[in-house]
Amino acid sequence: MISLDNPRDSAERVVADLLKVPPLADELGRVFAAHGHELHLVGGSVRDALLGRLAADGKQPTDLDFTTDARPERVLEITRGWAEATWEAGIAFGTVGLARRGTRLEVTTYRAESYDPGSRNPTVSYGDTLEGDLVRRDFTVNAMAVSVPDHRFVDLFGGMADLARGVLRTPGPPAASLDDDPLRILRAIRFEAALGLTPTDELVAAMTERADRLRIVAPERIRDELRKLIVAADPVRGLRRLVDVGAADVVLPELPALRMEIDEHHQHKDVYAHTLTVLRQAIELEDDGPDEILRWAALLHDIGKPRTRRHAPGGGVSFHHHEVIGRDMTRRRLSALRFPKDVVDAVSKLVFLHLRFHGYGTGGWTDSAVRRYVHDAGDQLSRLHRLVRSDCTTRNRRKAAALARSYDSLEERIAALAAQEELAAIRPELSGDDIMEILGLRPSRLVGEARAHMLEYRFDVGLVGREAAVAELLRWARERGLPIPGESGEGDASASGAGPRADAGAAAG
Prior knowledge:
alpha+beta, Beta Polymerase, domain 2, Hydrophobic Seed Protein, 4 domains, 13 strands, 8% strand, elongated
């Protein structure tokens, strides 16, 4: 972190840190200077240099942002032959993407844009000065620049001092900044969670007054900010702010809905506080950096509770089937925010399964139940382990220890069965082709029913070998009155939907 004790030293050190950036920045700066144009590193590149984050992992950054007085068409012209690839998707907003030696660079013309209050997109107009460009940026910590290749540090709005103090401010009046782009409300929350910067009271007031304007922002932009927030260093801090300023009511209403009333006659755990505790505990169990799917599952695992809460005589409260309702709510919310399907599926599955373990502690889980648990979790089993353990937030040490021992026991049984049966890929011992050959069927719904039965049989008894599996399939077929090839009644096979010549539609009927 930078220090205010010696501002000159800090300014010099930012240049030194920026020198650790690939020579590509200076190289591109020389290209622009040769053609009579200015070029400045801006935004996160400068901010992270001040924070000492650029080379913290010993690697060079692979993304750099610049601003220039050159118009987009001119940027394309003067970088032709220098850039190994270009992207023009953002050219309508003044941005040209360049690639060289594995680094992506975005060059944006000085802007003087504003937003129509009812529009999701900015109306872009180009500016003529660096100062005019910086004043319209979101926060002072992102409104600093370093010219390349001469490394002149520009900090017109006190961004370096704000970083040192841990303060988040806008270059101009916060109300005007948020009116320009309401998404900045979420960006402020994300920077608080990621960098520990506390928004000023004036900024918080403007965020609260304008939270409802997030409704005009495209779902994809909201999604991108929420995904960055959930994997930040302290997402709980950001989520609390999201709720407190009213932004969650617009972008993630299921979260503030967890703050259910608790009266003296119906005491129950504060689900909102419990949820944030589960998220913190899930983060503590991560072993390889932020796990977005685990974090979303921890945040959303109880969102079905408000809709399923029932008061019982005597002050009891129940939330029957909240995992089912929660799964469906999770799928709807993440889909509405345009999350990738694989993320939606994984998080929804974890929300649905998070409660199943609690039947284990009462005893009586058979090997069949353990197999089903593993099969249903599929490739999310390791995350399910972490989620279930995180969901224990009781202050009763004896109860917490008992739950931990129970889950230890379940994991031990899973490991023992896995060593014998390859639990991670449970499937019937007879394939669909096997079933059709044995029963003389063509592809049909009946084949699917037979395979489903054999999967249930696999759960119940484990691996039995092909001979025993065939015997079980034949027993099932006879019980249904299906003719078996080679046995009496074979001539009637086509009438019942079985046999080599059976019509697939008849078999399905």
